[in-house]
Specification:
Elements (H helix, E strand, L loop, with lengths): L18 H15 L4 H20 L3 H14 L3 H5 L1
Length: about 80
């Protein structure tokens, strides 16, 4: 058996996740976590995946904003000088 598109390193086909499998996983998560904790768990998972993706891509624009922030803090504001 040869793989054309999706194979692991050993040449075996990798099973795909279909809609039925996703529904089963969501139902199990709902039963385990309950309806009150499920949104918090999803939010936490999303922020973790976002952080992982950012670390793989080498950073985000937040690093640029942090680098520019000290220059803005050093400049005195006109409203603070007037007070």
């Amino acid at each position: 058996m040869q793989c054309q598109s999706s194979c692991n390193g050993k040449g075996l086909p990798v099973p795909s996740i279909g809609p039925l499998e996703l529904i089963v996983v969501l139902v199990i998560a709902l039963v385990i976590l309950g309806p009150k904790k499920l949104p918090d768990a999803a939010r936490s998972l999303g922020s973790g995946l976002r952080g992982f993706k950012d670390s793989l891509s080498g950073g985000t624009d937040d690093h640029k904003a942090l680098a520019e922030a000290p220059a803005e803090r050093e400049a005195p504001s006109t409203s603070a000088a007037a007070a």
